[in-house]
């Protein structure tokens, strides 16, 4: 943003410190008007004809703008994409381990990219990969859902799972049983 002496236009549309329209004035008059009030002349719309300038405290304006940007960045949530690789001949325990990892990622708010790797002649049996992905989607259905259908990328079949909005958070601790032990 251009301020004070950096504004090179001959005439500007001047807006006062309280937002009132002061009309089209020469740049020198507008600069003097701002200096008399111990404020800055700030060019806010250079593409307009004539350019629009506002009288304001530029330091205070910049501080408040930076503060708002910092708040916006603080509220912004960064979504990461985690990968889970499977093969066509994966064992049940390994499959369950990968499902548990995916559930943890989805609960944490991250997306999960499920990849089925085809080796050698497995490329002739793509339906096995589709079944594997369908089984995986079903296993994590309460935590996330697929954005699109599975796609082939060379020797890989992949699908991206996004966390559900109302995914259950970590289970709360079970209440302790306060009843006296029976039989003793």
Textual characterization of the structure:
By secondary structure, the protein is of the alpha+beta class. The chain has 2 domains: 4-57, Ubiquitin-like (UB roll) (Roll), CATH 3.10.20.80; 81-163, 2-Layer Sandwich (Translation Initiation Factor IF3), CATH 3.30.110. Helices cover 32% and strands 27% of the residues. The protein contains 4 helices and 9 strands; from the N terminus they run E-E-H-E-E-H-E-H-E-H-E-E-E. The protein has helices spanning 27-36, 58-75, 92-107, 126-139, and strands at 11-15, 21-26, 40-45, 52-56, 81-87, 111-117, 144-146, 151-153, 156-163. Strands 5, 6, 7, 8 and 9 form a 5-stranded mixed β-sheet that branches. It has a 4-stranded mixed β-sheet with strand order 2-1-4-3. The radius of gyration is 31 Å and the shape is rod-shaped. It starts with 10 loop residues before the first strand and ends in a 21-residue tail after the last strand. The model is unreliable at 167-177 (pLDDT under 50).
Descriptive key words:
9 strands; single chain; 32% helix; alpha+beta; Ubiquitin-like (UB roll); Translation Initiation Factor IF3; four-stranded mixed beta sheet; 184 residues
Mean pLDDT: 83
Low-confidence stretches: 167-177
- Helices and strands: which structural class? alpha+beta
Class of the largest domain, according to the CATH hierarchy?
A: Alpha Beta
């Amino acid at each position: 943003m251009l301020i004070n002496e950096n504004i090179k236009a001959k005439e500007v549309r001047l807006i006062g410190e309280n937002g009132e329209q002061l009309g089209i004035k020469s740049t020198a008059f507008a600069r003097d008007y701002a200096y008399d009030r111990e404020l800055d002349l700030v060019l806010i719309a250079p593409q307009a004809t004539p350019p629009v300038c506002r009288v304001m405290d530029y330091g205070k304006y910049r501080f408040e703008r930076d503060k708002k940007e910092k708040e916006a960045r603080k509220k912004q949530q960064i979504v990461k994409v985690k990968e889970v690789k499977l093969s066509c001949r994966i064992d049940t325990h390994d499959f369950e381990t990968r499902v548990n990892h995916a559930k943890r990622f989805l609960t944490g708010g991250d997306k999960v990219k499920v990849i089925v790797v085809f080796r050698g002649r497995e490329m002739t049996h793509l339906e096995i990969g589709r079944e594997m992905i369908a089984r995986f989607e079903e296993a994590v259905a309460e935590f996330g859902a697929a954005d699109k259908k599975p796609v082939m990328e060379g020797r890989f079949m992949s699908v991206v799972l996004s966390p559900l909005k109302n995914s259950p958070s970590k289970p709360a601790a079970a209440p302790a049983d306060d009843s006296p032990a029976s039989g003793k």
